[in-house]
Amino acid sequence: MMTLQNKRKFGFSSLSLAVSLALTGTLASQVAFAEEEAQAEAQNIEKIAVVGSRAAPRSVGESPVPVDIIGNEEFTKNGATDMNDLFSKVVPSYNVNAQPISDASTLVRPANMRGLAPDHTLVLLNGKRRHRSSVIAFQGAGISDGAQGPDISVIPAIALKQVEVLRDGAAAQYGSDAIAGVINFQLKDNSDGGTIEARYGEFYEGDGSSPMIAANVGLPLTDNGFFNISGEYKTQDTTSRSVQRDDAQALIDAGNTAVPVPAQVWGTPETKEDFKFFFNAGLDLNADQTAYMFGNWARRDVEGGFYYRNPTDRDGIYSADGGKTLLVGDLTGDMSGNCPTINVVDGVPDPDALAQVKADPDCFVFNEMFPGGFTPHFGGVVEDTSLVAGLKGTTKNSINYDFSLSYGKNTSDYYIKNTVNGSLGPMSPNTFNPGKYVQLERGASLDLSYFEIDTWSFAGGLEYRRETFEIYNGDPASFEVGPLASQGFGIGSNGFPGFKPEDSGSWGRGNVAAYIDVEKEITFSWLVTGAVRYEHYDDFGSTTNWKLGSIWNVTDDFSLRGAVSTGFRAPTVGQNNVRNVTTAFSPNGLQDQATLPPTNPISVQKGGKPLDPETSFNYSLGGVLTLGEFFLTLDYFHIELEDRITQTSPLELSDADKDALLAQGILDASSFSAVRYFTNDFDTTTQGIDLVVSYAPDWLDGANFALAYNWTETEVDSWNPANISDAKVKALEEALPHSKGTLTWTQELSADWRSMLRMNYYGSYWENHLDSDGELPIDVSSAVTFDAELSYDVNDNWSLSVGAQNLFDKYPDDNPWAGIAGAQYPVTSPYGFNGGYYYGRVSYSF
Fold first, then answer.
1. Which of 269, 334, 624, 749 could staple 753 via S-S, CB 3.0–4.6 A?
2. SS3 for 513?
């Protein structure tokens, strides 16, 4: 066997190994390798380790496409504990925001890489495809509308060895979703030692406290294996950056003393509990064969706010005519109650008529139950489970193989509090369980690879995957059609009606895939790679995709690289079958909008049809420069995406449409104002530049400077104006900052002291406030924030750190529409709207 030291004589030997490993299902195909030379010489065997330390450049320079290697240390130098927030700090093209009032997206926040939807980025764990979340983002600020991506927030930072970010289209290698790129989370594989960490932080305003404790332990699995386990537990108190709504203040001024202050809270949702457990195990069965297994279990309970229900004009609860009169229920059953009309003048109900209704047992208004109006609290319990087991090794004829089985399940069990089922009148409970979504994925894969130095490298494999999406109905009160429905009262738990038995069900889809990958060193300094992948899906048929990549070492210090590929994203089973009713803000106030399958008769009447896969054409071109301790990569990317899947804009329902829904047995259709469905209705072109610079100057011992910058711009090339509004087009193009970057200085001050200072830049963007279809636009200016951390090693085991995020307490621009719904700041700010945050951390390593 040729040793790694000998292989490194050839300019692309590490990539030869990398590509062969890529096609065994790991992202390592895109990363460079380094030899642990001392151990290799001592044991006379080949040792390979992924490059990625604090002192080394983050971007790897020997790959035909851009790859970032993010070590565990970069995640620990942050006050944030959620993986989405941590990732947005270290990957400039990755954007995520708080989602304070966003239905199920409050539980699993959608994130965007390279300006595309969450499900345009493929997520791997130890090189294996990660299952997607059960949550579908129904309110995603345009870009994420209808997306169903994986939930990376279940991954604790302490469990990670490193993260590899492939910033290029890779559907030909990995299949569906790998359009914007691929993120591979590598779990720790230590067989001894460990770390225990406790952290506490809160915002400068004194709210949002977030205690956390985490631990990682490595254990031996006989003399030839490891069993590495990690756990994390945390909570998060809510915050409030709210002002009193204008309508609520008007009620107070008119003498209503029961109105809450503030009536509606905009802030970080409360995380009541968040527990995460991961394990990673491997065992060498012999010199040529290794068994492995890894998986997780996670559970979190998150509760956020909702829109305030005004006690004079909330449709279906307090009024049926826009607030001219109160909605009075006759409880007699035969309409013999002779209930009086309660006129509303300047927001004040006629006090005499209201008193008469309250005194009459045959009449009812919800002002009796909630005289100051009410604000529902929406939340849910998210559980996530996965297990992957496999066997890998090398045959006698030097063919590498990897066979694995995988299982992943994500469940979102919803609840809503402080609300009512209007149609039940005074018999309505105030807490409901509207039901749950379940995403289940199972798979099997066989990956083979064979390579010879100076000739060709080949790899290929087969995969099978089965996806299932399930809907479980809620408790009866959450969807029941009560006796007051015929009098104009709303049906179902107001704000998030429960899933009815006829909505519940299980839908599945299988797909098979086959791929081949070839690599050739044309000359000593020129490498060419190629891949082809075929997939067949039960529902929409087949797709074939390809990729070509190349890197040319112009000199010892400078390389040019590029790639071109086609890609696809299959519509999810959930997008094809989901049913949901959500309360959204509209120019006419709160509106109940139903999301129906695209093949539902009402959807078909509005233009719906079965979904097709999205297709993409990607190309990239870049350069790599290495001059001593200075390292730079600059890459341009271009992504043409056709038949993109999204929700339509709300389509108003006529009386005839509602009658048709009622005829189908959808008895709560009378409460719907509009309908949406998923559709392939627009094409986009996204282009941008990624710049990564690392410099560790000799003249400043122990220092490292890192610059990461991204510019991304999306243009909507075509769309269906019947389904996609102008405001949604603008959101797709401008709802995220075009530019984002970080400049980080880390410094070893002494043997015991370390420091970090980071400057963050966020470009300007446009917010479609309250998803109001452009009626409430906000042009938000660019911003600069700073993060800082100081650490001290007490001894070999104990370490103390203190730090701050948003050190100088920067807030977004004031919201010009604050009085309408009470949000003091734009709610989609990429750096949040809570201001500065300080934290402390204690770590014990052994």
1. 749
2. strand
The answer for residues whose C-beta is within 8 angstroms of residue 316's C-beta and 6 or more apart is: 327, 422, 488, 489, 490, 494, 592, 671
Give the pLDDT confidence score for residue 15 in this predicted structure: 38
Q: Is the dihedral of CA 819, 823, 825, 827 positive or negative?
A: negative
The pLDDT, as a whole number, for residue 29 is 34
Checking 450-455 for CB contacts under 8 A at 24+ apart, the result is: 450/20, 450/398, 450/399, 450/400, 451/16, 451/17, 451/19, 451/20, 451/519, 453/2, 453/7, 453/10, 453/13, 453/16, 454/10, 454/521, 455/520
Q: Are the CB atoms for 228 and 218 separated by under 8 Å?
A: yes
Q: Sign of the C-alpha dihedral, residues 302, 305, 306, 312?
A: positive
pTM above 0.85, yes or no: yes
Q: How far apart are the C-alpha atoms of 82 and 79, rounded to whole Å?
A: 10
**Are the C-beta atoms of 179 and 639 separated by less than 8 Å?**
yes
DSSP 109: -
- Displacement of CA 120 from its chain's centroid (Å): 11
Beta pairing, strands 783-793 & 777-780: unpaired
Residue 781 token pair = 């200016």
Low-confidence ranges of the chain (pLDDT < 70): 1-61, 139-141, 453-454, 584-589, 671
Cβ neighbours for 335, distance < 8 A, ≥ 6 positions apart: none
Query: By C-alpha distance, which of 549, 479, 468 is closest to 509?
Result: 468
Instruction: Count other Cβ atoms within 10 Å, centred on residue 430.
Output: 15
- Give the residue carrying structure tokens 């609860």: 317
SS3 at position 758? strand
Which of left, alpha, beta for 421 (phi over 0: left; psi -120 to 50: alpha)? beta
Identify each DSSP E strand in 305-370 by its residue range: 329-330, 344-345, 348-349, 363-364
Q: Beta partners for 637?
A: 620, 688
Strand partners, 364: 329
**Cα dist from 509 to 238, 286, 441, whole Å:** 39, 38, 10
**Cβ partners under 8 Å of residue 715, min gap 6:** 684, 685, 686, 733
Pairing of strands 160-166, 67-71: antiparallel
Structure tokens at 704: 């490292």
- CB-based contacts of 555: which residues, under 8 Å, 6+ apart? none
Phi/psi of residue 677, each to 5°?
A: -150, 165
Q: What is the dihedral of CA 307, 311, 314, 317, to 10 degrees?
A: 110
**Cα 659 to Cα 667: distance, rounded to the nearest angstrom:** 10
Token pair belonging to 824: 């003091």
- Output the six-digit token pair for 493: 């738990």
Strands (E), 395-525: 400-417, 431-451, 456-473, 505-523
Q: How many CA atoms lie within 13 A of 266 on its CB side?
A: 24
Q: What are phi and psi of 148, to 5 degrees?
A: -135, 85
Say whether 602 sits in a helix, a strand or coil: helix
CA 302, CA 306: separation in Å to the nearest integer?
13
Query: Are residues 189 and 214 in contact, defined by beta-carbon separation less than 8 angstroms?
Result: no
Alpha-carbon span 315 to 585, nearest angstrom: 13
Q: How far apart are CA 782 and CA 785, in angstroms?
A: 10
- Number of residues that this document lists for the chain: 846
The Cα–Cα gap between 268 and 97 comes to: 10
Residue 80: count other Cβ atoms within 10 Å of its Cβ. 20
Separation of alpha carbons 512 and 537, rounded Å: 7
Residue 42: strand, helix, or coil: helix
Beta strand pairing call for 739-748 and 753-762: antiparallel
Angle at 18 between CA 87 and CA 74, to 5 degrees: 25
Residue with token string 């991961």: 278
**End-to-end alpha carbon distance in the chain:** 37
- Cβ pair 410, 155 in contact under 8 A: no
Strands 181-187, 121-125: pairing kind: parallel
